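Before a colleague's protein record goes any further, I have to sign it off. What it holds is a sequence and that sequence's fold in C-alpha cell form. My question to you is simply how this chain folds and whether the C-alpha cells agree. Thanks in advance; the entry in question is below:
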Amino acid sequence: MKKLRNLNKMNKKGAIEMSINTIVILLLALAMLGVGLFVVNKLRGSVPELDVSQQKKDQIYGKLESSGDKFLIEEKEITVKSTETYRSYYGLENVLDEEKTFDIGIECEDGIHGNDASTIGLAFRLSFKLSPGERTAEVFEIDPKDTDPDIYACKITVSEGASEYASERFNLEIVP
C-alpha cells in the first residue's frame, strides 16, 4: 500500500512536470511566432509601395488625352536630394488593336561630371498587360543615396515584344 502511495505521488509529480513543460513549450512557440511576424512585417515595410492614387491617375490620363501621346512622363526635369527618395509618374495607353504586354526599362547615363549612374536606385513595375485603348498610370521611385551629386540623362523605354513601343527622356539632378 505504501508503494502504491509513493507511485501515485510520483505520477502526480510527473503530471505536474509535464504540464509545466507543455506551458513552457507553448510560450516559446508564441514568442517565436511573434518574432516571425515582426520580421515579415519589417520586410514588407522595406519594399516600396508603388500604388498610384485615383486622383493622380485621373491627372495622368487627362495629360495623355490632351497631348495625344501614347506615353508620357509627368516630369522631364527632376531634382532630388541625395538623402531623399523621390517619386515620379508616367502614363501609358495601348493604341494597338490587341491586348499587349508592355515591358518597362529605365536607364541613366553617367553624369555630366563623369559620376557613375549605376548606383542610382530605381524601383518601378517591370511589365503589365493592357487591352486596346486601355491606359495605366504608374509610379517610379528614385533613391540616390549611394550616388554622387551630378546631372544624369535618363530614359524610360516601353517595349512590346522585341520592339520599342515608346520612350521618353528626363534629366535627373542629384544635389547634396
Observations:
- The CA atoms of residues 95 and 118 lie 33 Å apart.
